[in-house]
Amino acid sequence: MKRVFMLPNFIIVGAPKAGTTSLYHYLSEHPQVFMSEPKEVNFFSKDEIEEQGLYYQDFKAKDLDSYEKLFDKGIDKKAVGEGSVSYLFYPETPAKIKALLPAVKIIMLLRDPVARGYSHYLMDYRLGLVDVPYKEIVLKTSTHKNAHLYYQQYVELGLYYEQVKRYLELFGKEQVKIYFQEDLRQDTQKIIFDLYEFLEIDPSNIPNIEREHNAFSMPKSNVVHKLYTSYFIRTLLSVVFPEALKEKIKNELFERKKKPALEENLREQLLDIYRQDIQNLESFLNKDLSVWYEEITNA
Predict the structure, then answer these.
(1) Nearest-CA neighbor of 23 among 99, 106, 140?
(2) Phi, psi of 168 (to 5 degrees)
(3) CATH of domain 10-216+258-294
(4) What is the pLDDT of residue 90?
(5) Pairing of strands 217-219, 254-256
(6) Which residues, in sequence order, are bridge partners of residue 110?
(7) 44 and 84 in contact (C-beta within 8 Å)?
(8) At what angle do helices 243-253 and 231-240 cross, to 10 degrees?
(9) pLDDT digits (tens, 9 = 90+) for 165-182
(10) Which pTM was predicted?
(11) What whole-number distance in Å separates Cα of residue 135 and Cα of residue 151?
């Protein structure tokens, strides 16, 4: 039998640590939606990640054939998607997506960049991917060989203006939907229904919005920590287990913890980096984002 090829008709492109995992799981519950396993395949950003020698090096599709195979089971679904959050940052990625998927719908979820970057750092610290103090990364005083990559991941990824602009100018407003984590937390159901309308799927299906996905947690023991910081173990889990099962395993081995507070003076220094970019984004989107740079929020 001739194989029928399937490609996504929507992509969640980022930002990292902004709630995209929750969106992924909410959409996965809808009977008309197929989401890739795993969530992040990094197909359109793999060249940049490899060229940089980025410490993640996490690819689930290295060529078009393997990318297409990820969506084989979605042939009977109305909405087929993936959620590689690396796609938002790299300048070349939108054009690559457009060349292969000109009609694809783009979904973005943005978060206060100070909180986003610190949350990203804490996640990588927990995974054993970084052992440099956050302050040294932000102030560029670290001599670690990956210091420039850490700065990119925890600071530059939060400079959203140019990233958002690239997608809107290339795909147009009709194909791009932008949400904010603050709105998702305040009225999850409203955002979900708006997303359903954007994807043209049945709005009567309501996902389990009470469950928080990818919340801050720490290993329950040193043994778990050592296992989880192993690149081999993480890769094995990523390849072998589906997203839902991985989340169950994580919930059993990790426990919710209160995040360590971000130093106030460091937050102010980060705001100095982000303020103009946020204001540029405000003007471009015609949306008030002053809460990001005027109020003191918990990172």
Answers:
(1) 106
(2) -65, -40
(3) 3.40.50.300
(4) 98
(5) antiparallel
(6) 180
(7) yes
(8) 140
(9) 999 999 999 999 999 999
(10) 0.87
(11) 11
d(CA 69, CA 66): 5
The predicted-structure confidence for 102-128, as pLDDT tens digits, reads as follows 999 999 999 999 999 999 999 999 888
H-type helices in the chain, by residue range? Answer: 20-28, 46-52, 64-69, 93-100, 113-126, 134-138, 147-154, 160-171, 181-186, 188-199, 222-228, 231-240, 243-253, 264-285, 291-294
Which tokens go with 121?
């750092």
pLDDT of residue 271: 96
pLDDT-based confidence at residue 236 (cuts at 50, 70, 90): low
Enumerate residues 6+ apart whose C-beta is below 8 A from 69: 61
Residue in 12, 40, 17, 35 with CA at minimum distance from that of residue 25: 35
Looking at the chain, which runs of residues are DSSP E strands?
Answer: 10-14, 33-35, 79-82, 105-110, 176-180, 217-219, 254-256
For the chain, give percent helix, strand, coil, nearest 5: 50, 10, 40
Q: How far is CA 92 from CA 18, 163, 281, in A?
A: 22, 10, 20
Cβ pair 37, 80 in contact under 8 A:
no
